[in-house]
User: Fold these one by one.
Assistant:
Number 1:
Amino acid sequence: MITIKNSVLTAGTASLLSLGSLALTSPSYGFSLNLNSWYTIGDVNPISSTQATLNSGSFYTVPTGGGADSLEDFLSLTPGSLDPVTSIFGATQGSATKQTFTDIKVGDVLRFDYSFLTNDADNAFVTINNSVIALTASTPFTYSFTSAGTYNVGIGVVDVDDTIGASKLIVSNAKLDAVPEPITILGSLTALGFGVGMRRRFSRKNSASGSAWDIQ
């Protein structure tokens, strides 16, 4: 009987140790973002769950500058926010996609791959609430959130200084890496402490009754 109890207890403690180790050594988890569920304006085509292509310089793009149905209105930006500082006439027209995230935690990270194809002075960008971040190279984009809350995230491309010269922004593999909930680590540590405590308790019981079992 003692052998069975010890075996079960050892296995249970080992499992709890593994659980606690997993929680402590896995600092984040991630999930893919379905780009096909994002809202779009202008020429965003083709689009799938893992990839979206945003175009400028085409018939289906929308104007900038503010006002109803403009890119700034769609992205909840003030007029002129999409004008690059080095441009003469500013942004003229473009396309964008957006999504709202309602439960962002400190340390969450937005990531996606992108390729910006242009032969013009056009501009690709990301908007995080009221901030506009230029995409200047074909490298993965990462953004770490420094405060918790709700965030409006937009991705777009605009013609700059003219309305000709097609450009293309290809976005893929969008992902949100989220920090683990504190309760997950706390719960694992509680379970781990419980397992160690039970092992000590049974060890004391076995030591106290060892002579009686030895006689049998």
Number 2:
Amino acid sequence: MPVFRILILLILLVPAVEIWGLITAGKVIGATPTVLLVIATGVAGGYLARKQGLQTLHLARLQLSRGELPGDALLEGVCILAGGFLLLTPGFFTDVLGALLLLPYTRGMAKLLLKRKLFQYIDEGRIHWYIRR
């Protein structure tokens, strides 16, 4: 399935699932607690993403100052950015995915999958990279 079709499907499906989840949670715990919970996860997600993002940025700068390529730090930063974005998005299902990307153990698994996919794209010729001399 082409990436564009998957993206369109996600744009349509994710908000529908999130709205369903918010309505269901509102019926079970009430409207006010549901809204407060959504706000709390957004604030917590922003805080965690900022804290972990700054740590990752510091690590990348340290690696660059030593003449090393910060490949893992960059992938870590992508995962943290995505996790923070998902936690800032209203809804409980995106919050779960965002939290998984901010937890070090599950973020490591996501980094591994991302790395494998990148190497697969390089092998297939979808991504070209050059070394400057």
Number 3:
Amino acid sequence: MPSFTSLGVGSNLPLDTLLTNLTTAEKKRLTPITQQQSTNTARLTAYGTLKSALEKFQTANTTLNSADLFKSTTVTSSTEDLTATTTAGAAPGTYMISVTQLAQAQSLSTKSGISSVKEALGDTSSDSRTIKIEQKGRKEPLEIKLSKDQTSLEGIRDAINDADSGISASIVKVKENDYQLVLTADSGVDNKMTISVSGDSKLNDLLAYDSTAGSGNMKQLVEAKNALLKVNGIDIERPSNTITDAPQGVTLNLTKEVTDARITVTKSNEKATEAIKGWVDAYNSLLDTFSTLTKYTEVDPGAETQDTNNGALLGDSAVRTIQTGIRAQFANGASDGAFKTLGEIGITTDGTTGKLKIDDTKLEKALKDNTAATRQLLVGDGKETGITTKIATEVKGYLADDGIIDVAQDNINATLKKLTKQYLAVSNSIDDTVARYKAQFTQLDSMMSKLNSTSNYLGQQFTAMSNS
């Protein structure tokens, strides 16, 4: 069979063009599949966008779903020498505070005369030794075992610091060839240190100290003290200069001794207002996402296709379920307080867009005059009642591993897998069909070439006979 570099050469027919046209026609069988793949891929992406928007709203809802938010306070001090902060539950009021003594941390040091920080100071005949540090505020004594290679100032320092016990060790250079080891405990009388070393008499001679008797081979640089203060005339003693429970909900930071410092705690609605506005903004942003994903652009009657700008989840039941489910909770707070609806605290729904809007004046009045009722409406008992509590339950279900979004995504992924298999099957079928066409055209080309050759030969013979 003759071979040809291009179809149609042998037959002088446009077989190459015909094969190209047939191939193009066959490949159109893939178009419905690719369109379905594009549609489903767009829907999968859209569900990811929906999930992200829902998670952002969930974050804002969680922030507002806190009873402590409505118990916020602010605090001021009459002096910079005594600062304070508050937590939820701090009782508004004025507190007169006098600090007569600051808490101090005990500090001990070895005696002078140690010439090297790396020189072994322990008994070389002993393989191990244990430093024991006893403190009244610690249930069990701190025990630190040292090897023969850990008896230098650096070795002892590192071993104590590695214990991470609240006792810190450092080395101080007094002068050339004169170093001291300094141990510092946490502040407070109950953290005074009594130190002994077993298994090494040399180290015991270096580190031994009895805080009860105030004697030993180490010397006390700083005495341990508790903070002493009066709060509204009540004597308070604490081991730290950070007082967290006098009064409760107020943290006092003592820096100097002061007399009659005034700490004023007042109720504040700033955090609650901020959380409510953040919640409204997040919900409105979620509505924008709904609108984008379900957007519909009207087309002329009789149009064969819809507008390409339509949302990927147009007509999707999951979106409607989520949107309806969340909106339903706005009127489902089950509040026993004075407020029954969001509108009563200044949060209303726009009839056209469905978005929430805030009447700042009305919200401020509700928070100021009836904080408890506002909290009851929005938070409820934190378990079953309260608008944000019920929304939290709804949204958690939507975002669960087996929730409505997850199920929809699984279904789309399953469909995409089927479409991929279908695409490969059709593509292979097309390749087989085109190969068959090509083989047939090649055979036709060969046959026509032979027929043309025979015709030419016969024509030449007839012409020769006629001439003779």
